Structure formats: C-alpha cells, structure tokens
Amino acid sequence: MPVITISEIHQVCKTALEKHGALPWIAESVAHAVAKNESRSNRICGLYYLQSYCQQLVSGRVSKDAEPDISCPNLAL
Questions:
Q1: How far is 72 from 54, CA to CA, in rounded Å?
Q2: Positive or negative CA dihedral for 43, 28, 26, 19?
Q3: Cα(43)–Cα(20) distance, rounded to whole angstroms?
C-alpha cells in the first residue's frame, strides 16, 4: 500500500480547495487543519470531509471569498 505524507495531504487539499474556488489563504487554512487532523489519526476531521468541503464551495453553501471583519467596539459607559 502506498504511503502518503502529511505534507502531500496538505498540498493535495490546498490544491483541491483552490480549484473549487476557495481563496488561497482560505484553502491554506483548511488544508492545514485537514493535514493536522490526519497526522493525529482524526479521520473524521481530516480527509473524510474534503469532498464535502469542495462540493459546498461549488454549490455556494460555503463562501469562496469570505473575509473576516474584526472590530473592537467601545464598551458602553
């Protein structure tokens, strides 16, 4: 049985997510999480869901280009 490294898992995930429309920084973040979970044998949070993530990008269920908007509102006095 061929062995795939965690680094290869990361790269394949990142490429797949980008090809399905994710911005590079989003694809990198998700690929990192998938690879890390695979390295810990946590399959349910690893490659198990990669196909679903890609399908959700294509269907629009998940935003392809979400950008965080971080604010620090002042406390009411």
A1: 33
A2: negative
A3: 22
Residue among 66, 63, 42 at smallest CA distance from 53: 63
**47 CA to centre of own chain:** 10
Residue 65, SS3 per DSSP: coil
Q: Quote the DSSP letter at residue 27.
A: H
- 22-33: pLDDT as tens digits: 999 999 999 999
Q: What is the pLDDT of residues 31-77, one digit of tens each?
A: 999 999 999 999 888 899 999 999 999 999 988 888 888 888 887 76
CA-closest candidate to residue 37, choices 28, 48, 25 = 48
Tell which residue, 61, 57, 70, 65, has the closest CA to residue 26.
Answer: 65
| Distance separating alpha carbons of residues 62 and 3, to the nearest angstrom | 31
